[in-house]
């Protein structure tokens, strides 16, 4: 294994091979943007990251459940109060379904307020008879299929910072200002959801919650005087991909002296950048935030144990979340050896299931899609693997939007291939719409419930 120096600085990653970094045309221009961001205020505070870590420690102990959800990639164009609010609504609805059905606290983490950068399997894409740079997310370039649009522009890093700040600001306002109060459970339902089967099922649950709240109010506990009923913590997270940007927002906490990446509460690294010898692992090992790492079907026991050792040598509960993305056919066989090895080694990780990325394919019309049945199938396999190994299926990591899009097939209203063209709006991977997200929450709660019973 690597001989990693014990010392760590926000710049240490620069001495390691960094995959998936854009080809910036002008290094001086990049430096200017990075310095500008380094002078800006942090987006989150260390104390918030510590509080998320404490909640995740509860998940790793089997006493809470993680819901991590949001866009595949946030967009500079689809940026409005409406789109933020609609996304939050779905997350709140799913959280309330999971909390009510499972009877354990749900830790809510958005893929939001910073989820812009995308790893790509090829640095270039063939358009007509030219190879142009691949789209890497709006923090790097534009999605339009022309060479000019695909030039990496450092100004976009600065714009991503500002969009993250506004998104986080509105998120804080909504989650602390009354929008998320439990006596508003009915109000989170959108029109296009309320008429569907899962919408009706939600209405039933919301009515039950209202009855419980009326009972508690009669006993002297109302939402006005009880912040727990009125407010909710929705933490932010994104893939730590562009290390210059993450470095610029990494600050020393004055209270503890530890380094925190203040671009989000939680950061993760992907299946393509989790190389033990690479720059991304080097960067993440040094920040004190709770961190995540995706693990795909090719992950070996040695690799996963190496990641645990390097990313969480002190074995702090809540520090490391392993997010498996195996694909429906491989989830049980792929996951079980990893669960066993990590448990035997005494690493207190959170296990979360990303049922999206191992189940993506191209429909006959060329659209990238995912089938709801495969997504649910992977969650089921995940729960079964945990039951067999005696570990806690700690959470789910999903890509969704609040809009009524048609990007994933199936679900209770059975979207088909032909529907994909109606509203296919993602700038990257296909996302669940509000109805599909809600159905997924109900069915996940049922699967985990049987896990706990059995
Ligand atoms: N604060 C509690 C929690 O976060 C209860 C709560 C308030 C809640 N508003 C919510 C739960 C919205 C889910 C969704 O769990
Ligand atoms: Mn994605």
Structure notes:
This protein is of the alpha/beta class and 454 residues long. The protein is globular, with a radius of gyration of 21 Å. A hairpin with a 6-residue loop joins strand 6 and strand 7 (259-261). The strands form 4 sheets. An 8-stranded parallel barrel has the order 1-2-5-8-9-10-11-14, surrounded by 6 helices. The model has no long low-confidence stretch (mean pLDDT 95). Helix 3 (81-102) runs parallel beside helix 13. It has one domain: Aldolase class I (TIM Barrel, Alpha-Beta Barrel). The longest helix is centred in the first third of the chain and has 22 residues, at 81-102. It has helices at residues 27-38, 46-60, 81-102, 155-176, 191-194, 197-218, 227-230, 243-248, 279-286, 301-311, 331-344, 372-389, 434-453; strands spanning 65-70, 106-111, 124-127, 130-133, 234-239, 250-252, 259-261, 266-269, 291-295, 320-324, 350-353, 360-362, 368-370, 395-399. The chain has 13 helices and 14 strands.
How many DSSP-defined strands? 14
Q: Bound small molecules, which ones?
A: tryptophan, manganese (II) ion
CATH architectural arrangement: Alpha-Beta Barrel
**Fraction of helical residues:** 25-40%
Distance between the termini: 40 Å
Please name the defining characteristics of this protein.
alpha/beta, 8-stranded parallel barrel, 39% helix, binds manganese (II) ion, two-stranded antiparallel sheet, binds tryptophan, 454 residues
